[in-house]
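Per reviewer request, we include the raw input and output of the structure prediction for the construct analysed in the revised manuscript.
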Amino acid sequence: MKTILITGASGDIAAALISSLNPRENRIIGLDRQPSAAARDIELHLCDLSDPAQLGDCLKRAREEWLADVEAVVHLAGVYPNLPLGSYPPELWEKVHAVNVDSLFRIVQAILACETTSLRNIVITSSTAARSGSRDPAYASSKAALLGLAKSFSVSLAERRIRVNTVLPGIIETSMSDVQSPERKQFHIQRTLAKTIGTPEEVANVIDFLLSDKSSYLWGTTIEVNGGMT
């Protein structure tokens, strides 16, 4: 039985991943700011990842209870306001980066501070927008930052035998993508070779593979799950 920490555990991709991992066979611990039906079978800890104080308190409690047991981290938490450059308030820019990037850094740093040898695997969810850009500058910027963070984690943690890999989803049928207009969705679909929107299960399957021993020789890689968009 593995102990797996999932951020954004109440989201659609997380729901598919939790089902694939089977909470009866793995100890799954989730972080999210709100509960969901998908997260009812796991150990869900409510925490607003955009609030450094909340996250700090959560990690402090976790250190006393379960943080040192974490064998794998899956970073799914993400904020996508879908706003253009001219409409972005500075505080929203900071919130997007706090959730999408900063929270992962702080979580991994906290696990390492436990001086544990349990952690062996980190899977980071970036986005095709990290490479192609987006009309939402904070979203694309934060997702691009995750690519650099992942590479740095890979270099820094290799001596500890911790694998770090990144998944870059494209247009996926989730509540996050629902903020886009039908016309914008169709634009993205037409850019894919598959000519369809991806499903949460298709992303979860790749993450599940990266968490397994079948991917044991994948270190510091990125996998694009976007139907051939790029």
